[in-house]
Design brief:
about 35% helix; 2 domains; about 325 residues; four-stranded mixed β-sheet; Peroxisomal Thiolase, Chain A, domain 1; single chain; about 25% strand; five-stranded mixed β-sheet
Amino acid sequence: MYNSRISGLGMYVPENIVTNDDLSKMMNTSSDWIIERTGIEQRRHIKKGDGNSTAKMGVKAAKIAIKRAGIATNDIELILFATLSPDYYFPGSGVIVQEELGIPTCPAMDIRTQCSGFVYAMSTADQFVKTGMYKNVLVIGSENQSGGLDMTTRGRGVSVIFGDGAGAAVVSRETDLSKGIMSSHLHSEGEHAKELSIIDPNTSRWIPEIIADNNPDDISFYPYMNGQFVFKNAVTRFSEVINEGLEKNGWESKDIDLLIPHQANLRIAQFIQRKFRLSDDQVYNNIQKYGNTTAASIPIALTEAWEAGKVKEGGKVVLAAFGSGFTWGSVMINW
């Protein structure tokens, strides 16, 4: 019998800072408008020529996580790469990471559950380790979203939210069953898939057709979000999946030492904090600095919290996410 634990963490964000005031020069918005609705003050965007991509940022975060885990790169037996913005339409970014790290033939798998991607990937890694198949799994969440956003007034409701960056974790075998990932809980509801989506290109409308249409009003290849509907579903599903994890492990909300929610919107995180009666010290948010980095948001926040000494040995850490799909999930950890 084995458990799995996080043995190393790492993160990387581009150096290019884009403030709310910067965005106000591109579209009809203001810093006050953005902060009021999202809590975001700035975000990081890849800058042309800075050498970054989804996979390259993931590699930078992964190298830090592997070093902190105290293992060699070739000790990684599986790569799980969570992203909605892969370097190529195909193949996935996981194999690019494998090549960049110089790992000869380990399996690499991309996970496409958007904002819930890192939670889904952690749950997958946990199962591979607990069954004894692998000792060390590299889990990456990385996003390069800035290049695919509608940076005009038309797209401001979505474009002001997102940022670029990467986070990584090494999930390793643990023989002490009282430590590590205690449980994970995953859900989806495809009925609402189009409420937060990018529809084109798709298998019934490929890029040549989009180009041939030459329609200046076509925004099907930009992100769409039904904001109020997503918000209402998010606060409900966040609460449900956190409670599911608490009940599974016999914990109460007061037992949580640190909750790291997906950084979708500061208002959502604050709503959940109030609902579970958690103090500011029990919840970690950094959306103010980085925006919503989708699959990268939880590993970036978890790494920052660990670096700041907020993740302590023996502490109960809860990861929770909700996003496009709709998909949602939680991971319960005894650190």
